[in-house]
Amino acid sequence: MSRIKTFNLPDLGEGLTEGEILAWLVKVGDTIELNQPIVEVETAKAAVEIPAKWAGQVQAIHHPEGTTVEVGTPIIAIDTDPGAGPLETPSTTATPSGDLPTPSAASLAAVEVAPAEGMVEPGLIGGAAPGGRTAVLVGYGPRTTAAKRRPRKGGVPAQAVATPAPVAPTPAPAPTPAPAPVAPGRNAQGAAVTGGLVLAKPPVRKLAKDLGVDLGTLTGSGPLGSITREDVQRAASGAATVVAEPIAATTAPSFGADREQRIPVKGVRKLTAENMSRSAFTAPHVTEFLTVDVTRAMKALDRLRGRREWRDVRVSPLLLVAKAVLLAVQRHPMVNSTWAGDEIVVKEYVNLGIAAATERGLIVPNVKDAGRLSLRELADALTDLVQTAKSGRTSPAAMSGGTLTITNVGVFGVDTGTPILPPGESAILAFGAVREMPWVHKGKVKVRQVTTLGLSFDHRIIDGELGSKFLRDVGDFLTDPEAALLAWT
To answer: DSSP readout, 253-288?
Structure first.
């Protein structure tokens, strides 16, 4: 049995097909233990640490950090019996530059695929090949052809002639005194040049060709000294162009790529964009708003914090909003449902999602079966959920199966919003900031603590009456929690 085993990127759940290697937690030559975290991978849902399937010594790391690899692709090779002596054919050797070593064909041929990956038919990748060896994965082993590189954008190919292409003959100009030296990168008239060409956009070049204007004789008035349509038209009409002294390119404001930032859309942000687009154009959204006086609710929280058994518990307004939603669902079960094409699936459990903004983007982990939890258990679950999300350790399982969501936009000082439904859910509640505002209380205008709720729902399932009653119940609980608990439970 081969000592060298390859570890393939596993399926992290929810049908994910690829992951980006964020960080290697081990290096070639390290001795590792069974289930020791070896690599941090970001999928479309979360960043997770993957443990080792075997103990041993790291022999090769096949993909550097920042690489996106497909599920099932070998990412690391492990010597499961390093004490047995040196390998006959070392799989890797470290390079002085620190680059990742390239596994040899001989070492990969002797690699044994993990049993969990399943058997492969002979002749296919990973299966037995003629001679009894293991077929090498495409892309590994020694290269048989020289690498080819595409020429850099804007550069001149090595085989290109240094002189510019011939142009149509023009009448020879009258002898003029020798031009004064100009700054590098510009022609004698002050027009910016790059790679032997004058700076001008393709439409401008076409216009110049149609009008018979030589771009090399013009002074550019555009950004970085580029030639504009107006420059060409002035030259064609015979208007005199003023030859200006060469000026530094930084004097003209630039609105090009040098002042733009391009951020790749991947991982959590990519999944969020896909989900939000699919939801916004699939489920007919309706949003209703309700402004409520939550002064009594805030006082109830203060009394709760003062109790001995609650002194070490994080108590926030979100806790009361979550409890209000769970009680309102009991009174209106249809709100906790899913549209399934030819039927509506009403769920008797509530996996309460809490939208969380993280460094990697928006995620919505959920508290499983939140309706069965006591208020104390719900407080602990919300605290753990938020802390895990902020640390970037939320697992894919924690973000799957949500049935109803709360987004607490109030933490950003926002009054409310029109949230988009997470796919598969029929309602989402936006909880706005709690502010001191003038409010009519018992016939007098007083300063009270007020918040605004925004409920978006799928109008295929929830009509206006049901959505309004649900939102009203959430507001009634926050207005007077004690009375609502006595009346509803």
So the answer is: ---SGGG-------HHHHHHHHHHHHHHTTS-EEEE
Q: Which of 260-274, 290-304, 411-425 has the lowest mean pLDDT?
A: 260-274
Phi first, then psi, for residue 411 (nearest 5°) are -65, -15
Q: In the β-sheet with 68-70, what is the strand arrangement from edge to edge?
A: 47-51, 37-42, 18-24, 68-70
How many degrees, rounded to 5, is the angle at CA 485 between CA 484 and CA 486? 90
Place of tokens 């390119």: 249
Distance CA(185)–CA(194), nearest Å, equals: 6
The three-point CA angle 248-252-254 to 5° equals 120
**Terminal Cα distance for the chain, rounded:** 65
Residue indicated by tokens 């580029």: 226
The span from the CA of 185 to the CA of 198, in Å, is 9
**Residue 127 carries which side chain, given as an amino acid letter?**
G
Cα three-residue angle 473-477-478, rounded to 5 degrees: 120
**What CA–CA distances, in Å, run from 469 to 105, 288, 319, 328, 473?**
68, 11, 21, 9, 6
Please confirm, yes or no, whether 459 is among the known catalytic residues. Answer: yes
Q: Rounded to an integer, what distance in angstroms lies between the CA atom of residue 151 and that of residue 385? A: 49
Angle at 234 between CA 232 and CA 238, to 5 degrees: 115
Question: What is the reported pTM?
Answer: 0.55
Buried b (16+ CB within 10 A) or exposed e, 93-125: eeeeeeebbebbeebbbbbebbeeeeeeeeeee
**Residue 475 CB-density burial (10 A; 0-12 exposed, 13-18 middle, 19+ buried):** buried
Q: Of 257, 202, 179, 193, which Cα lies nearest the Cα of 225?
A: 193
pLDDT in tens, 360-406: 778 899 999 999 999 999 999 999 998 898 888 888 888 889 999 99
* Cβ atoms 402, 354 nearer than 8 A: no
Residue tagged active-site, from 63, 285, 332, 459: 459
E-strand stretches of 352-463: 352-354, 356-358, 361-363, 366-367, 404-407, 427-431, 435-441, 444-458
Burial class (CB in 10 A: 0-12, 13-18, 19+), 58: buried
For tokens 């075997």, the residue is 54
Closest CA to 17 of 72, 76, 63, 66: 72
